[in-house]
Write a structure and sequence with these properties.
This protein is of the alpha/beta class and about 250 residues long. Helix content is about 35%, strand content about 15%. The protein is built from eight helices and eight strands. Helix 5 links the parallel strand 3 and strand 4. The longest helix has 18 residues. The protein is globular.
């Protein structure tokens, strides 16, 4: 996602209208019947599908407040594994997802939209997408954004889109003391095309405090935040061919 606000004057003006703003073309919601069913199935079926699901950094998951989960994107399984480690059965909160337009189409799109997903056009992002993202954070709901902007199966962290930093800074600057955090998550598979028996490791990094990056120069602030997030994701990613030689804290399957 890439947004083109040039300074905090614009961002603050935009953010300050969020409480009463009506977002016409970008909304999200969580189905009260599908979501509990999906969590039940996920927690019971994922451990049977994958060989091992190993997690480090569970203590870094905020259970309250405004938070953006920023995972690496290696497979479509990522969108199911993130709530497995940070969703309602762990934090008591449902997640919202900013996903690409293509992921909101067809049968998959029907499911994604009912699980809190809403689309963003990466090439031509709209102001309403930013508004809705800010609104979610202002309401202190957790938001998931894949900062690389797409799926990459080579195991490397690709240059991050600046939109996640700009959205987070817009929310924090528009609502003083909101306390927005970005939590980097490295998701790693032993097979670049996950299948039955594939091992997964999920490394959750320390939360990044967005307020620490506000200096008044929006472009420089976004650049510094993006750079630090990318560094954190690189530290949380590694070559999964050696997964068996590492010791991780394993998450209980129940």
């Amino acid at each position: 996602m890439e947004l083109h606000s040039s300074d905090y004057t614009y961002q603050n003006k935009l953010a300050s209208t969020q409480v009463n703003a009506k977002v016409a073309s970008t909304t999200s919601w969580v189905s009260p019947w599908l979501t509990p069913l999906a969590y039940f199935l996920g927690y019971n079926l994922l451990p049977s599908f994958f060989g091992q699901i190993q997690i480090t950094g569970k203590e870094n998951i905020p259970i309250t407040g405004s938070v953006i989960f920023a995972p690496t994107h290696r497979s479509r399984w990522d969108a199911i594994l993130v709530p497995y480690v940070a969703g309602r059965w762990i934090t008591g909160r449902d997640l919202r997802y900013m996903v690409t337009v293509t992921e909101c189409q067809g049968l998959q799109g029907w499911f994604v939209r009912r699980m809190g997903g809403f689309p963003v056009d990466i090439k031509h992002p709209s102001v309403t997408t930013l508004r809705h993202g800010v609104q979610i954070l202002q309401q202190k709901e957790p938001l998931v954004i894949f900062p690389e902007g797409g799926i990459f199966r080579d195991g490397k962290v690709h240059p991050l889109k600046p939109g996640i930093a700009r959205l987070a800074l817009t929310a924090e600057s528009g609502y003083p003391d909101l306390g927005v955090k970005i939590v980097p998550i490295g998701i790693n598979y032993s097979d670049p095309y996950p299948r039955w028996g594939t091992n997964v490791s999920i490394h959750i990094g320390s939360p990044i405090q967005v307020a620490d990056y506000i200096s008044g120069n929006s472009k420089q602030d976004a650049k510094r935040l993006t750079t630090d997030l990318e560094k954190a994701l690189k530290l949380l990613s590694h070559d999964e061919s050696a997964i068996a030689t590492h010791t991780f804290a394993e998450m209980p399957n129940s």
